[in-house]
Amino acid sequence: MMAEETITDTGIGQDASLLLVDDDKPFLTRLARAMEARGFSVDTAESVEEAVAKAKAGAPAYAVVDMRLGDGNGLDVVAAIRESRADARAVILTGYGNIATAVTAVKLGAIDYLSKPADADDIYAALTRSGGERAAPPENPMSADRVRWEHIQRVYEMCDRNVSETARRLNMHRRTLQRILAKRAPR
């Protein structure tokens, strides 16, 4: 945690270096521009390997890291950043949020865990929030049906989109799962 006197009036510390790690190039570009407009000095990486190399070369004060990257897990990036710089403030972004990975992210040193789609304002608020502040509850939380659908999609992806294996792991009939997968996501 950084000292209170190093925080400027914008909420960013004296060292405004920010590493953004995401394999979605358009999202990464938009987020980089938005964070530069908010006063950060932004560097980007599109893989775990590239991000870890940048973290070891010079760990940033702030980081926004996608959980799932093409070549591995974003938690490895958070661990590498915290190894090089204990006071770094890292936020994990994911479209596959669950309690186990959130707990792991926090244990590895992440200060927040946001689900996609997260906008630049949410990310900025998470990065600059002081230790005592709590995040506001979401205005439009996911419905129970949407949470169920997200869980099924996450398991389906973990099973490499194998319907039979996913149905077995979820303890449901294969045809039932196929019908669920064929429908649109609930709101």
TrEMBL record:
Matching Pfam families: Response_reg
Biological process according to GO: phosphorelay signal transduction system
One GO MF term: DNA binding
Protein name: Two-component system response regulator
InterPro entries found in the cross-reference section: ActR_PrrA_rreg, Bact_response_regulator, CheY-like_superfamily, Sig_transdc_resp-reg_receiver
Transit peptide in keyword set: no
Keyword Phosphoprotein: yes
Signal peptide range: none
Keywords: DNA-binding, Phosphoprotein, Transcription, Transcription regulation, Two-component regulatory system
4-aspartylphosphate found at: 66
Domain Response regulatory: 17-131
PANTHER family, sorted: PROTEIN PILG (PTHR44591:SF14), STRESS RESPONSE REGULATOR PROTEIN 1 (PTHR44591)
